[in-house]
Amino acid sequence: MEIDQLLNSTGPPISVDLPNSYVVVPSIFFWILTPVIIHDIKTSRLSPLPWSTLMSLKWFVASLLIIDRLFVFLLAVWESVFEHKNVTADLFIFPFFHSFTLLALLIATNETRRAGIHSSGCLFCVWMLFAVFAAPEFYQWMNKGSQPELVARIDFFRYVAYLTYFPLVVAEFVLHFVSDPFPMPKTYQNSKCPEENANFISRQLLMWFSQIISLGSKKTLETEDVFELDSQMDQEYLKARWKTEWLKQSEKAHERQIKLDEKRQRSGTGNEKAPLLGTFNNYGAVNQNDADRVIVQPSVIFTLWNIMKWELLGGSFIKFLSDLLQFANPTFLNFLITFIETPDAPLYYGIALAIGMFLAGQAKSLFMNTYFIVMTRIGAKIQTMLSCAVYEKSLLLSNSARRERTVGEMVNILSIDVDRFRMITPQLQQYWSSPFQIIVCMVLLWQTIGVAVWAGIVVMISIVPINICVSVITKKWQIRLMKYKDERIRLINEVLNGIKVVKLSAWETAMEETIEKVRDKELKMIKQSSLLKTFADCLNVGAPVFVALATFTVFVLIDEKNVLTPNIAFVSLSLFNLLRGPLMMAADLVAQTVQLVVSNKRIRTFLCEREVDVNAIDKEIRGELYQNTVEVHSGSFSWDLAEARILSDIEFLVGSKELVTVVGSVGSGKSSLLLAALGEMEKICGYVGVRGSVAYLSQQPWILNQSLKKNILMQADLNDVLYKKVVEACALKDDLKQLPDGDETEIGEKGINLSGGQKARIALARAVYQSKDVYFLDDPLSAVDAHVGKHIFDNIIGPNGMLSHTTRILVTNCTSFLQESGKIIVMKDGRIRHCGTYDELLADDEAREYLQEVDAEYEQAQESSGEESGDEADDVLPGAIGSSSRMSRLSKLSKVSRKKSRSSIVEKKKPDALITKEEAAVGRVKAGIYMLYFKSMGIVKYVLPYFVAVILNMAFAMARSLWLTAWSDANIDMIHPDTLSVGTRLGVYAAFGVTEVFFLFFSLSLLLLGGVAASRNLHRPLLHNVLRNPLSYFDVTPIGRIINRLAKDMEVVDLRLSSSFRFLVISFMNMMQTVIIVTYTTPLFIVIIIPVYIIYYFVLKYSIKSTRQLQRIASLTRSPIFSNFSETLQGISTVRAFQWNDEFIRRNDMHLNTHVRCNYYSQMSNRWLAIRLELLGNIVIFAASMLAIFGKESGITAGMLGLSVSYSLNITFMLNMFVRTINDVETNVVSVERIDEYSKTKSEAEWRMEGYVLPQAWPIGGAVNIEDYSCRYRDELDLVLKQISLNILPGQKVGVCGRTGAGKSSLALALFRIVEAAEGHISIDQTITSHIGLHDLREKLTIIPQENVLFANTLRFNIDPKSQFNDQQLWAALENSNLKAHVETLPQKLESPVAEGGENFSVGQRQLLCLTRALLRKSKVLVLDEATAGIDNRTDAMVQATIREKFADSTIITIAHRLHTIMDYDRIIVMEAGRIVEDGIPGELLKNKNSKFYGLAKSAKIVG
User: What is the pLDDT of residue 886?
Assistant: First the structure.
């Protein structure tokens, strides 16, 4: 029917002859959906549902419908055959087709029940269509029956059949509203996942999710409150599907590889003569012909496609319907404007258009939400499958594959690359959807304005290359930005890791300036790239303005007949607005695609990496033929097949229950021998066999972040008797008493709150408790002192220990236990030099010499080490440390770790929790945090001008729209024709448009510059305060947590927060704009919008708590995944040795499931809110349309209606955007809160005391006086120094000694006020140190600390960070420290770069650089804190000689572990339990054989 006829009609336009239309469309729709129904049935993993009353009713009603339709069919047959009537074909075909479809529907209903599907969406939609399409015919028959003149001609039997049919169809439709069975027995309810039980309507409107929203409005949601995932998202099911498909892809890739290799071989030359050389690369030799070999790898994307294709296609279909529906509004707008322009158009037609617009908008909202739900589910499944695949692959990686990647890189694959797959999933359909939307848009525009559309297209296309150029430039700048960011974080990391040295040397200001310089470069790059991006954003946002201007100009100028009517103006504008979405999405999609391509390659390469050869070690037990528990024959091993052998010609046998000790000098290959037997090294040749279950204790103890008891038990059940026996045997009983919660005390990351000795003993206890057959023990006695070592050996390892019934291979250099070994293996240079009993080795001169070397090395190490070491080290394979000198570096690492101790371990009493857990924030962010951010931006300079610019931008935008309204209305007003020329109209319109875009750019630039100012003003006090924190703060706060504030939170402030505020303001202003415009055109609108906004407010208030908390929980549950992954990678050799792969996979699955679950329901909360807000938005559109229709009589013009409705069309999007940006702002502003929290922590004393100026030459003499001094590390801890009184004369050389925990290092720290006095005081040259500034004090004293901290900067910076000395002074200091010759050989001399951690300098050279720093200062008071503990004897002698010469007139206080270094000192102080127990001249103290000093000297074998 034509529109003109429709407008002039008087009744509803329903045909009186609609035969069979109610059958065709729903039936065809059912058959189209049949494959989807079959797919749902086939893939369902639910248990069959019982036969219920509801199912009986469905069957009963459906059976009546089939009978009814068959009756109509048989009636036609009767009339044709028996009554010989001329019956048309449709009366046969349609009833039969209808009956057949209904029968199929009945079968489908039963099959869905058997598949366990509670409510089928497909069947619901089919019955809904049947009911909807039956309504017109029902109207037709009722119309006939109600008109007397038509009753006589009525077909009575068909009339009765239809009157029966319609109520039955409606009844069947109603029966599908509820889930089956109804009411649902508890046995069939999945209370943990209501989504699985929900009916179709509930799933569409997310009514099942309302209980979480309700709960969240009453209390703070916890992880336990979140529902479980449904069976389709079950982890085990998804993992099984991934493995099946990945295996298929791998096999296909392998087949393609064989074909390619055969083709390449045929095309190559020389392979026929020497086929072996062409196919094998023995001993790492590289065949040059392999350089051009194409490696075929299985595809991750194809694997995911094969698993997800039906769901993706379903999502595509839903997106297609949604895309079509978004073009309904411009079409309805066109009809509405025509309705207003037509004076005598019937009112019902206008109302029908408004209802149609509302229904189309609501249908589009539902389709879009369903689409996002489907794609969110797909994204969650992809995240689950890829995360599990990456984690499980990491457990199987060969050592050579692991060496190519750091732990951080592998964590990035899991955290960033996998997440990119999840993030792009909702956007995937845009690859076809964006072009489709653009094409439809162009077609509709062509119909509206003809060829003028090309002007708009040209403008839009011209913006594309600008966007591309901006993308290219910003990408380059982004790379530079990341480089600066990485450099800043690296510097911060180095400073925090070396914070003790930084504070002792008073270098905080120098480090702060260095970091701030890099920060300035970073902010400059942020400003540049953001300004450029702002320019591009303005072009994109202003595109509709320029496009409309160009199109309307061309339209009115190319032909005088072309008049800009409201239809043309506002329909075109709405279409141009629709065009902006896909164009902007396309640019974003390209960026995401580039990232995805990189991530896809990284994941694919990782999943195709070489795995550990499980066949390298023969683990079969074959009875009597294999008597030996461990045997290696002619074995050669390396870390990588392409590298030289580390172990060669290894031959040894270990019998059952035998104790074999492996000894050898540093770097001889002891640890490698154990790892080779475990299969962790690449076996080049030979045979390795290990019989029975294996336990492995790594050289660096691997401790997990869980309770001490769980660290020992792992996955074994608790045997209380065995557990207590193991704890006792490992000398852990006393430690458990000291720990606040005993064995339930949670151990921090990498055992941070344990000493090295405690970690070693816990790891040993774990190995013993597992009760394995074969024990590989890598130097377990190195971290404990002699008496603890003897206790462990006697009770565990030795012939009478707990492991005496097992086979033990022990690596140690402690020769006192060798006599009790059944066999001793002596290693040197990667070979077994000797193997035999203790007596056999002593009889061999060469072997005896080796043993003496080893013994000397061990004694030297023991002499300089305490029992406890606080070093944190990872259980990493030696191959991960570096390619050169791997064995020796590992050995040195273990040796140094024995010598280092943490000053914070001296206390016996510990607080309840050393490291507190980081909790998720709760509730709203305080208003003060927002004000802090605005003040940081500059309220007067940037914030207020920004709001003024935004308001002006909005004002000019409204003025442009009103001008267009007046212009278009003037063109259709025949009574008062337009008096203004086209040029004037265009000029004013262009002026408004350009000014609007200018203020947009101006406002965005102000916001951007304000954001950069805020970044600078928040970072500087944060960094300053972190450096002002006392050293004790870093004991209880993990460095990672501090770096998180300076890295992740700062990144949010730098890059996200200002744009979140921008979108919040834009969405709010646009909503206000819509209200103002619609109220201006139809004042009654205010009556409707106020209650709508009130409802909106309460819906938002009701749901925002749940939405916000779910987002926080989702963020919080990410961390355990990566922590567990990092821990697993760090202890991978231990995990594999104990065969704990399944246990750690279970842990990963648990953490991953928790995160995916929380993240999925966090997304659902957004969908829940969106559905309700979009309903409100559609009500606003409906209200605006209805008011315009009813306002027709009051004189509303077509232009006004077009303006009003076109503005209201944006309200749904803006409401959603407003809510989303409120969430974004709240989420992101938490970063400001976290930064502010760390900017206000308790600081140490002032660096400089105002008004107190020390003499330049202070201290002159160097006299140190300590009076009744006591101190503690933190307020809640016991005193570590107790009532110390000491008077050191100027120039005196004092040695401080004592056992571990005596308080020696605490005394040194007290001098520098690293710890403050609890009582008493310290004075230097009669000046009380607590009365002067910290920097005033620390700059005047010098310490050569145990930690030789170097920074990744120039050599000059490392020696003189404050730039206080000239080149001549620097070279003189280098010469005095015996480093000048080495530095002169470096290409850049003093400007030579120092690698991270000083890796390009040897340990000795690093210590000499620390000496150089001390020589430059040349203080009157010098403290040596175990300064030579980590260097060899030769360097030690050199350092001692230099100190004696250059500091001859200075007071020297030495914290000694090597007693021989202080034997010639003027004075010896012996400390015990924080007190001075002996004080005197060395010779005098040694005369007293009962003295503590004599005991220490005897232990060190200085005296007999």
Answer: 31
Grouping H, G, I as helix, E, B as strand and the rest as coil, residue 658 is coil
**CA torsion angle for 1460, 1464, 1466, 1468 (degrees, to 10)?**
20
> For residues 964 and 972, what is the distance between their CA atoms, to the nearest angstrom?
13
Distance between CA 491 and CA 515 in Å, rounded? 7
Give residue-wise pLDDT tens across range 646-677: 888 888 888 888 889 988 765 678 888 888 88
Torsion, Cα 777 780 786 789, to 10 degrees, reads: -60
Q: Does 755 fall in a domain?
A: yes
Strands, sheet with 630-638, edge to edge from the N-terminal-most edge strand: 647-654, 630-638, 682-690
Between 90-114 and 21-43, two packed helices, what is the crossing angle to 10 degrees? 20
Please answer whether residues 312 and 428 qualify as being in contact, where contact means their C-beta atoms are separated by less than 8 angstroms. yes
Helical packing angle, 566-607 and 328-341, nearest 10°:
170
For the record, the structure tokens of 1283 come out as 């009532």
For residue 1028, being part of any structural domain is answered with no
Range of the domain at 86: 15-189
Q: What is the mean pLDDT of residues 54-80?
A: 83
Question: Which of 189, 206, 233 finishes a domain?
Answer: 189
Residues with Cβ within 8 Å of 447's Cβ and at least 6 positions away in sequence, in order, are none
pLDDT one-digit tens code per residue, 947-992: 999 999 889 988 888 888 888 777 776 566 656 777 788 888 888 8
For residues 1465 and 1454, the answer to whether their CB atoms sit within 8 Å is yes
User: What are the DSSP E strand ranges found in 1299-1357?
Assistant: 1317-1324, 1327-1328, 1342-1344
The C-alpha atoms of residue 80 and residue 1410 are separated, in whole angstroms, by: 111
Q: What are phi and psi of 1085, to 5 degrees?
A: -60, -30
Mean pLDDT of 722-735: 85
Residue 991 counted as domain residue = no
Closest CA to 996 of 957, 946, 949, 951: 957
- Burial category of 1391 from C-beta neighbours within 10 Å (exposed 0-12, middle 13-18, buried 19 and up): exposed
Name the residue among 1051, 1041, 1130 with its Cα closest to residue 410.
1130
Q: At a CB cut-off of 8 Å and minimum separation 6, what does 638 contact?
A: 284, 644, 645, 646, 647, 681, 682, 684
Predicted confidence at residue 1113, as pLDDT, reads: 83
Asked if 1439 and 1431 count as a contact pair (C-beta separation under 8 A), the reply is yes
9 vs 782 pLDDT, higher one? 782
- Paired strand residues for 774: 694, 807
User: Which one-letter DSSP state was computed for residue 879?
Assistant: G
H or E stretch at 825: strand 823-828
DSSP state string for 1044-1067: HIIIIIHHIIIIIIHHHHHHHHHH
Tell me how many domains the chain contains.
Answer: 3
CATH number at residue 835: 3.40.50.300
Residue 623 in this model has a pLDDT that exceeds 80: no
Q: Could you read off the pLDDT of 440-464 as tens digits, one per residue?
A: 888 888 888 888 888 888 887 787 7
Which CA distances in Å does 493 have to 486, 496, 550, 1393?
Answer: 10, 5, 55, 18
Joined together, the tokens standing for residue 79 give 């009339």
Rounded to the nearest angstrom, the gap between the alpha carbon of residue 678 and the centroid of all alpha carbons in its chain is 33
Cβ neighbors of 905 (< 8 A, separation 6 or more) are 755, 868, 870, 1301
Longest dimension (CA), the chain: 139
Integer Cα distance of 1493 and 879 in angstroms: 43
> Could you tell me which of 608, 603, 610 has the C-alpha nearest to residue 414?
603
Full 3-state SS string of 562-622: CCCCHHHHHHHHHHHHHHHHHHHHHHHHHHHHHHHHHHHHHHHHHHCCCECCCCCCECCCC
Whether 1014 maps to a domain, the answer reads no
Domain boundary (189, 221, 254) is at 189
Residues found in the chain: 1504
DSSP per-residue codes, 1202-1227: HHHHHHHTTHHHHHHHHHHHHHHHHH
